[in-house]
Design a protein that fits this description.
The structure holds 2 protein chains of 2 kinds. By secondary structure, chain A is α/β, with parallel strands linked by helices. Chain A is built from 11 helices and 10 strands. Chain A has a domain at 7-96 and 169-248: Rossmann fold (3-Layer(aba) Sandwich), CATH 3.40.50.300. Helix content of chain A is 35%, strand content 25%. Chain A starts with 6 loop residues before the first strand and ends in a 5-residue tail after the last helix. By secondary structure, chain B is an all-alpha fold. The chains are: A alpha/beta, B mainly alpha. Bound molecules: adenosine-5'-triphosphate and magnesium ion.
Chain lengths: 253, 291
């Protein structure tokens, strides 16, 4: 491996109080890769993801050990501000969440607008991000309508546009399509493949076909441990671990 | 299919009848609940409307025996008192509510919550007497400031409590979505959570305003009353509820009529405050509140 990874998980451990939910996970994410994290429910996928933008520590009982390097710099180092980390590592959640009280375009640039940036320059920024999230054509005539007036699938693309508008280095997605209908889900998948050209993506998914379709590499987790990290084609056709094989063939447990 | 079509049909019909009965009962109960409201309103309108004229809103009360006069000074006084109360209680109450819901694990928060609960259950005359001893006595005068503070203290816990409840109802994922954008915690609370639930907070404020607008007892010992126009915030200040009270307990027919008219004015004033508050705070608000 010659180039420096964008994100590098190094022996990451995460806890909720006494509960050890992520146990020494290490893997690297290269620039413009899509990396999928799969594994049974409760194995710590979301927890791991939330460590990478320091959202994990919002829970008062939470604790993290190990390091996560973003472009070679540890996001947990003494003086790193979680707010700055989150501007560089965006996140899209399972549930589409347009902010109430804000119009569509205000929602898109919420990360900048609510920090006090002037409205004047932001309309263009919103247009750009909406185009990147392939939502522009659908909303260009109603930019001042409430963000909550959009459908679930549109709101999820709005959330992606909102994450993009902050100009992050990487975006984390936690089951971004599992609350959506199949057509909206397919649109998000297409979008992820398109966005890969400009950004690095780590996505948690329960849909193995989805992981196989859109990701370059896949991490399989079980009981907080990383069982296998491999190129997606290898992991799904010829896995190294017996555990991985039984999981992807559905003979798990 | 486990049930035959016929049994199925019977079951369906029975359910439909039950549904009708329940709907009827609920409608009847709601009707009973609002009947007193309409009776009171009807009574006030019927008795009050005859004494209402232009002079009533613009003139001072006249000495006993003279005809005419109005409650202009009391209306103005009430508006001043309510304004002083809201100026203090709305910002402090809203931020207090934010503090209660966002820093709920801290020890000072439980102390603050206890104080708020205590204030909420305090009889209004006790609050009035507290302001009397701590402001009226040292300043040697009944005043609009003292009256406004007494009303503000009554309003504060209501605003704080509703704000807290409203914030608690905002789901975690809304906050997390804000934090994930790299916004600081207080920006998320202020610009996403609070803005998203703005109309609910305003409802709390409006309810609190309605509660204090008719308060009489604490004003008797703080703002007192005045037969003239209010000219200074440090003078005894007239108000609608106190004037209504004084007129209603008097033995004069003419004053009773004025008291009814005052009551009607008070109800209409509260109605206008309600509308005004909503319009002012929801201007430019494009969002629905269904988070
Ligand atoms: N806030 C919390 N407090 C305590 N324990 C938690 C908390 N959140 C998650 N956990 C526990 O941590 C473990 C890992 O949870 P996590 O949400 O990371 O799993 P996951 O792999 O994302 O599961 P799913 O696929 O169902 O989303 C689970 O056992 C869960 O019960
Ligand atoms: Mg999860």
């Amino acid at each position: 491996m010659s180039s420096q990874p964008i994100l590098s998980f190094q022996k990451v451990h995460a806890y909720y109080g006494e509960k050890h939910t992520v146990k020494g996970v290490s893997f690297d994410v290269q620039a413009n890769e899509v990396v999928a994290i799969i594994g049974p429910s409760g194995c710590g996928k979301s927890t791991l993801l939330r460590c990478a933008n320091r959202l994990h520590e919002e829970d008062p009982t939470a604790r993290v050990e190990g390091s996560i390097l973003l472009n070679g710099v540890d996001i947990f180092q003494n003086h790193a501000d979680p707010v700055v980390v989150r501007q560089k590592v965006g996140m899209v959640f399972q549930k589409p969440t347009a902010f109430s009280g804000l119009s569509i375009w205000e929602n898109v640039v919420a990360g900048r607008l609510l920090k006090g940036e002037k409205k004047a320059g932001l309309k263009e920024k919103a247009e750009h991000a909406l185009k990147q999230a392939s939502l522009w054509e659908e909303v260009k005539d109603k930019l001042n309508a409430p963000g909550l007036s959009l459908s679930g699938g549109q709101q999820q693309r709005l959330c992606i546009a909102r994450a993009l508008a902050v100009n992050p280095t990487a975006i984390l997605m936690d089951e971004p399509t599992s609350a959506l209908d199949p057509i909206s889900a397919a649109r998000i998948e297409e979008l992820i493949s398109e966005l890969q050209k400009i950004i690095t993506i780590v996505i948690v998914t329960h849909n193995l076909q989805q992981a196989a379709r859109i990701s370059d590499k896949t991490a399989f987790m079980n009981f907080g441990e990383l069982i296998e990290f491999n190129s997606t084609s290898k992991l799904f056709t010829n896995p190294e671990s017996k555990l991985t094989e039984s999981y992807i063939t559905g003979h798990f447990g | 299919m486990i049930l035959s079509t016929r049994a199925n049909f019977r079951l369906l019909r029975r359910r439909r009848i039950k549904d009708r009965i329940m709907t009827g009962v609920i409608m009847l109960l709601s009707l009973i609940a609002i009947i007193p409201l309409f009776m009171i309103f009807y009574h006030i309108v019927v008795n009050g409307i005859s004494a209402i004229n232009f002079d009533f809103f613009t003139q001072l009360p006249v000495p006993l025996g003279e005809i005419g006069g109005g409650m202009g000074n009391c209306i103005l006084g009430s508006i001043i008192l309510i304004s002083i109360a809201s100026l203090g209680a709305v910002p402090i109450g809203v931020f207090g509510g934010v503090y209660l819901s966002e820093y709920k694990h801290e020890r000072t928060a439980s102390l603050f919550r206890w104080v708020v609960d205590l204030m909420m259950s305090m009889p209004s005359i006790v609050i009035g007497l507290f302001v009397y001893t701590s402001i009226v006595v040292p300043s040697k005068s009944f005043s609009a400031v003292a009256g406004g503070i007494a009303l503000g203290l009554l309003m504060l816990p209501i605003v704080a409590k509703t704000t807290e409840e409203v914030l608690k109802l905002t789901p975690l994922h809304v906050r997390e979505a804000g934090l994930a954008l790299g916004l600081s915690r207080w920006r998320v609370i202020l610009f996403i959570v609070l803005r998203g639930r703005k109309s609910a907070v305003i409802t709390g404020i409006v309810l609190a305003l309605g509660r204090i607008a008719g308060e009489t007892a604490p004003l008797l010992v703080t703002a007192f009353g005045n037969r003239n126009w209010p000219t200074s915030l440090m003078q005894p200040t007239p108000s609608l509820p106190v004037q209504i009270y004084n007129y209603a307990i008097s033995p004069y027919e003419n004053w009773h009529k004025q008291a009814w008219a005052g009551a009607l004015t008070l109800v209409v004033l509260i109605f206008f405050i309600n509308i005004f508050t909503r319009v002012v705070f929801t201007r430019n608000d494009l969002g629905r509140n269904t988070q």
